[in-house]
Every structure is written in C-alpha cells, then in structure tokens.
C-alpha cells in the first residue's frame, strides 16, 4: 500500500506517492497561485494528486491515505485550515472539500513544519531522538516540536508557532502582524532582503556578479559569494546566522530538546550554516557551561523531500 | 499530615508549613546571603525549617515531605541544583545535603517557576485549566509550563527557561550571559533600572517624590506615580508592559495554552498590569483575528504565598 503526501507551500505545491518505508515512488509539483482564491489552489492540488496516481499507475484502492502539510494554523483534529497567511487561506474546511474528489480515502492535514517533524521522526535523522525541535528556514520559519516522541501542537493545534516569536522588539514587520519575529529575520525571504540591502551598500561585492549570473538574488547568493571570499557577503551570512542562532537558542532554552534539526531551503547550505549555529548554541544555551546538557544542531536529513515525506507521515 | 515548602529566592528564603488542602499553618523567612558560599544558604534553610517546626509545635514525624523551589536549572530527578545564577549555586546535590539534617524525610526540589506552576494547579487559579504558562516577574523572570495537566521540564529538567529567550537582539546584558533576554527587560530588576533611567531623564517627575517617600526606587515606584497621573511614569509602565507583552505573546504562540498566569512581585499591580497585557495578547497573538483560540492573561492567585505553596506542592 502507498500513501500520498502533498506539501502546500508559499512557492509551490509538491506531492509524492510514498511507500510505507519512506521510499518515494514518484513526485510532481505546481506553482502556488497565492493571489487566487483557495479554490484554485485546491483544484491544482486535486489535479496534482490525479496526475501522480496516473504516473504511478495506481488507482484510489491502492492508496492508504492522503496527508497534506500546510503552513499556518491548521486544526488537524477538525480538518480545517484556520489561518494561513502565506497562502491566504482563512477557515477553509479542506478535508471535507477534498473528500468530494477522492471518496472514502482518509485525508489528514497538519501544519507543514509539524508534518516535517513527524517525517524526520518516522523516516529521517530524528529517528534516534525522543525530543527534538525542527526549524524550517524557507519562505517563512516553521517550527515542529516533538516531546517524548510525540508531536506537540497546543490547544486546537494552534501552538508551535516558533517562527512568530519576537527576537527584535520593534524590528522588521512580519506577515503575522507583529514586528521583529524570528521569521522576519531568519526565513529565506529575510535572507534575500538582507542580501539585497548589503548589495546596495556594497555595489562592488561579488554578490552582484553572482546575482547577475543566476538571474536573481536568492537565499544562496550571499552564501556563494562568501564561499568565494567576499567580505560583504560574509557579513550578511554572519548576521543572518546570528539571528537564526538567537531563535534556536531561545527554542533550546524553552524545550531543552536533545537536538534542533534545521530544514527548509537554507539548510542546503550544510556545514556553512550548521557549524556556526552549533558554536552559538554551545556558547549561549542556558547553563551550558555549568552542567546543563548540550543541545545538538543538525541538518534535517530529508531536505528536499521533507515536505512530501512529512505530509505523507500524517497519513500513517 | 503537613508538608514544608521552602522557596529559595534571590532576595529571601521563605518557608511555610502547609496542610494538604493548601492552608498555611505558619511561615517565616530570612534574607538570602547570595554573596556567600552555598553552605551558608543551606545552613540558613535548615535553621528556617527547624524554626518553623518549633513554631508549629511539630516533630519530623508529623511532616510528610519537604519541597524546595529554587531559581535556575534544577535537575529534579537527580536532586541537584545544576546551575542557579541568581543564588550562585553550581552543581550542588542539595537533596543529599539536606538528608543529613532531616533523616528519612522525603525531600523534593524543582525550579521555582515550575514549582509555582504546580502550586497554582494544585491550590490556585489554574485548577480549572489543563494547559497554562506561568510567568513570574520577580528578581528574574521564570516560566513554568503545564501541558495536559503535567509539568513540562525538558531533558534533565533543564528546559522551561522562557525568561532566557532573547526579545531584543543585542539588547541589555542578562545574567545568563546573553544579551536582550526577556528577563533583562521584564523582571522587577529591569523595571527598577528602567524607572531609574526615566527619573534621571525627568528629574521633576513624581517618581522622585515617591522614591524619597519610600526610601528607595522599587518595582512599584513607576506604577504608583503613573496612578497619580505622572506622564513620565506612565511612559515607563507602557514600555515595560510592552516588553512583558512581547514575551508572553511569544510564549502563547509557542505553547498556545488556555491561559498565561502572571505571578511574582510585579503581578501585585493587578489590573494596571493584567488588562493592558490581555489587550496586547488579543491584538498580537498568532492568528487571533482569524479563528485561533484566544489566550487569557490572568493574575496568578497565590501571589505572596506562591513560592511556599509551589515548593510544598513538589512534595505532594
């Protein structure tokens, strides 16, 4: 039997057909039309799922369940997207809506970062831990929290929004309405903003050359320029990592997990990101010089497929 | 049968003999000699307990257990104060040390804010909730977290340090070694610092008059002056409450509890503190305008005796 995992993100809707061992049979994706009505994204999701089943030559009877990971406040018990500012959904009973298309197929939803946490626990790096905080550095910053092997979601699944905790009072505006959230400083979106600001200030930096080569500024621009020795880019990276560090040390002091797992697009930078974060953690985590247990910082192992595998794990 | 609760704080060691119904038979306190060796504080604690038993005419056989609430990283399972920066204890096996004085009496320890959370759950306002975050605004800022009716402490009881989460990156130095922690802005200590700074800037403010009347600046100075219409004092209060608000909305977004309970010395200001905090919570909590459940802000009900009752509840 197979499961289908669909990850609805701010940039794309990605789906895959997944075996119970975590092997992905096939996958596909479409751009997220965030400016449109929820109906358009739902219709695109339905087409994506049908295409996947065709591609894998599977009928609905061969599918055990469908899991959807969605950014924002997702009431997993009621099957409702309560509020998702990245894709502009408010109070959408998506499980009920999808039931119209797939008959008796069980449909499960969850916050995308929570789903990623579940996926890492089931299929990835977190298999060996009981207590972990997952931090996804993507369009936004999501956090998924595992306590004693179980997902922690708060009342009405509305908690675990670590991306929406202020780390710079009165700082940059955040999509949630507050100012200075972790997300507003540590998302890939924030990194692009920080990179662009540095490029304006240092027009001769390698960052401009790389951005021209790639056709645009993205989350990799400053990392690539820094790796080639560009000083202004290294400053961007140091500052960005400093912000990520503040956020993850905060989460470590609150949850004191065994590990903080870093996922999302920016985590593909690997050691250039993870090693300085571990250094910050080892320097600043509460009581760390006085006998409190160390908190590890590791790259989430599922990276590119984390969304699909996480979503799929909701249906297991 | 009775229990003894002892609350070791940065300013004083307070103890009480408590009935299983939460009634306090008698209580006493001594100043905390923080500059001395841990031995001095332990000896003072032992005298305090002996005095309490004499006062209540109770012998060790009439006592069911002894609970101690202590600030910092307390490994409740091992009975060790791992690290307490407020009272300068590092790796002190206090349960073993006290056993030498009280024979077979069961001794339990816990972080003071966690103990306060337990106390409120057992004896106070939180009895009607299953999910609560307790925030103590005292010498430091402690947080105690109750999830589904149980204390959450993290690995080695080293979590739940919400006071040590940065809300102002690169801000005021904190006793934990970081800069800009919630504690460095929202403790009574921070409020005194903010009040003094405003008094220097506005020497004609009522705050100076009140401080002279009372003999010193304390956490009440600005609240008292603001209540009498002093504009500079009101600015101090608004800014202070703004910082407390950032911290509690952060905790609400992470835990999404039913209630945030405010305790500690500053909570005695009552509605002047709680009502503006509820307003901030209702305005800024994640997804609150889009269907996410409301998080209540309430004054912890045990206030002055919270430390003693919390510590006592550790022994129940």
Unreliable parts of chain A:
none
Shape of chain A: globular
C-alpha-based Rg of chain A, rounded: 20 Å
Q: In terms of structural class, how would the helical and strand content of chain A be classed?
A: alpha/beta
Order of helices and strands of chain A: EEEHEEEEHEHEEEHHHHHEHEH
Could you describe the largest sheet of chain A, including whether it forms a barrel?
5 strands, mixed
Structure overview:
Two copies of one chain form a homodimer. The first copy, chain A, has 316 residues and is α/β, with parallel strands linked by helices. Chain A folds into two domains: 2-120 and 305-314, ATPase, nucleotide binding domain (Nucleotidyltransferase, domain 5, 2-Layer Sandwich); 130-300, ATPase, nucleotide binding domain (Nucleotidyltransferase, domain 5, 2-Layer Sandwich). Chain A has ten helices and 13 strands. In chain A, strands 3-2-1-4-8 form a five-stranded mixed beta sheet. Chain A has a five-stranded mixed beta sheet with strand order 11-10-9-12-13, with helices on both faces. Chain A has a three-stranded antiparallel beta sheet with strand order 5-6-7, covered by helices on one side. In chain A, helix 9 links the parallel strand 12 (259-263) and strand 13.
Short description:
Chain A has helices at 38-55, 94-102, 112-123, 182-186, 188-201, 206-214, 221-227, 231-255, 271-284, 306-314, and strands at 2-8, 12-19, 24-31, 63-70, 73-75, 80-84, 89-92, 107-111, 132-137, 141-147, 150-152, 259-263, 296-299. With 316 residues, chain A is an alpha/beta fold.
């Amino acid at each position: 039997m197979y499961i289908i995992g669909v990850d609805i993100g701010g940039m794309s809707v990605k789906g895959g057909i997944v075996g119970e061992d975590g092997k992905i049979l096939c996958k596909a994706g479409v751009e997220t039309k965030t400016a449109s009505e929820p109906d358009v994204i739902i219709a695109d999701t339905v087409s994506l799922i049908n295409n996947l089943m065709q591609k894998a030559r599977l009928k609905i009877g061969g599918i055990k369940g469908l899991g959807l990971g969605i950014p924002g406040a997702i009431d997993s018990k009621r099957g409702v997207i309560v509020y998702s500012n990245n894709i502009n959904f408010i109070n959408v009973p998506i499980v009920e809506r999808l039931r119209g298309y797939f008959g008796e197929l069980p449909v499960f939803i969850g916050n995308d970062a929570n789903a990623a946490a579940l996926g890492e626990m089931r299929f990835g790096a977190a298999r060996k831990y009981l207590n972990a905080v997952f931090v996804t550095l993507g369009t936004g910053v999501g956090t998924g929290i595992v306590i004693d092997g179980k997902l922690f979601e708060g009342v009405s699944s509305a908690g675990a929004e670590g991306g929406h905790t202020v780390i710079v009072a009165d700082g940059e505006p955040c999509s949630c309405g507050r100012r200075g959230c972790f997300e507003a400083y540590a998302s890939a979106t924030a990194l692009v903003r920080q990179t662009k600001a540095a490029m304006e200030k240092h027009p001769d930096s390698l960052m401009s050359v790389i951005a021209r080569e790639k056709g645009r500024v993205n989350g990799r621009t400053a990392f690539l320029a820094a790796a080639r020795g560009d000083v202004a880019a290294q400053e961007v990276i140091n500052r960005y990592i400093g912000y990520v560090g503040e956020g993850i040390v905060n989460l470590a002091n609150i949850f004191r997990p065994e590990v903080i797992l870093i996922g999302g697009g920016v985590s593909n930078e690997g050691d250039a990101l993870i090693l300085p974060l571990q250094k910050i953690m080892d320097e600043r985590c509460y009581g760390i010089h006085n006998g409190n247990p160390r908190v590890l910082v590791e790259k989430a192992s599922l990276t590119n497929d984390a969304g699909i595998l996480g979503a799929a794990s909701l249906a297991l």
